[in-house]
Amino acid sequence: MTTPPVLVHSREELSHLLAPARAAGRRVGLVPTMGALHEGHASLMALARKHVDDGPVVVSVFVNPLQFGAGEDLDRYPRTLAADLEVCAAEGVDVVFAPSVDEVYPGGDPQVTVEPGPLATELEGRTRPGHFRGVLTVVAKLFGLVRPDVAVFGEKDYQQLVLIRRMVADLCQGVEVVGAETRREDDGLALSSRNRYLEAEQRHEATVLSRALRAAREEARYGAAAALDAARAELRTAGEVDLDYLELRTPDLEQLPADVPPGTEARILVAARLGATRLIDNLPLVLSAPTTEVSQ
Length: 296
Fold this sequence. Notes:
Elements: E1 6-8, H1 11-23, E2 29-33, H2 39-52, E3 57-61, H3 81-90, E4 95-97, H4 101-104, H5 124-127, H6 131-146, E5 150-154, H7 158-170, E6 176-180, H8 200-205, H9 207-219, H10 224-235, E7 242-249, E8 264-274, E9 277-287
Parallel strand pairs: 1-4, 2-3, 2-5, 3-4, 5-6
Antiparallel strand pairs: 7-8, 8-9
């Protein structure tokens, strides 16, 4: 029988629970989430456990209003705390921190936020202005509240992961940021809390995203242009997918140089809408030949 985690809602409760571990010199792990937990989140918890051994693993469950823009799905974002606690219990999580908006942002929206820099205006930032300011601000708040030694984030939100690593480095926050490989359904679709919004036909069509990325990775041995052409060809096989972007970048999400040496590591990223639902995905790949075409 699994032991349920301790559920806390206030910063005072959280600090009190973690004090003995800190006093004993045990490492503290954090998995920040917005809830609606699935197997992908569970894999992050398992990875956090490996990094802290017998130290406490904290999972935060907080739907952060600062990262939702006008017309986005803040109101309909799933809130499933009872089910989330069961997922956390199964993974041996010690503490679930589920604060209210007022607890995280006392007095309303913060006057001081984290400026995410130029990368935040590209890729996801082109269609979601202000999104990453909200993400980095809440992650910085959670780092201050939990004071973790290690924090685990999924690679599915790859741009978010890159920006969080940059924030930690630039602001000297002293947190080890660990990225976890994207977990997928048997048909390749990346696990996401938003998948539940898809209608049956949309759910079937959505697998084209992972197929396109796999096609790109297969053709990457012929260079970046071939990889992108393969992904575009696969995307054209789905009639209901409204492509937002398909881009090939460095692992740090910088633009690839015009002359790419063989063996260059890269990351291909895609975002698309199926009806009202927007999905993202990405994969690492290795380029084996130079090209001048790197994005669409």
